[in-house]
Amino acid sequence: MQDVYFALPDAVRQVLGKVRRNLQAALDSRGLCLSPPEAHILYLVKDEPEITPLEVSHRTGHDKAVVARKIKSMQAADLLVREQDTDDRRRCKLRLTPAGQDCCEQISAARREAHSRVFHALSPDEQKQLTRLLEKCL
Asked: In degrees rounded to 5, what are phi and psi of residue 83?
């Protein structure tokens, strides 16, 4: 029997990898030229209008430089804009463009598709329980 201290993190890593691969496939099938981290950033901006790049970095766990590159790429694709914070001119806030809002609808469908492929073996109650258990670890 494998030691739980190795088996559990390995299982979590494998499930996350499977979610990422399925999400990338679902994004690609919709013609969205986004990576899963970029899709996550857009979704964060959708859920928290005027979020700052630093807050995105903290929420995603990605380095500030990585987040800055992804934001710049999505600005070039007209999916989001950076606006200077009127209260603190050193900060900027992120906002979706209309194209970014449309893209988020496609991302939402892609996420549902990817997650249902990965978690189809679990009942809705088991999925809720797994979510609660993982949140408890955080």
From this structure: -125, 140
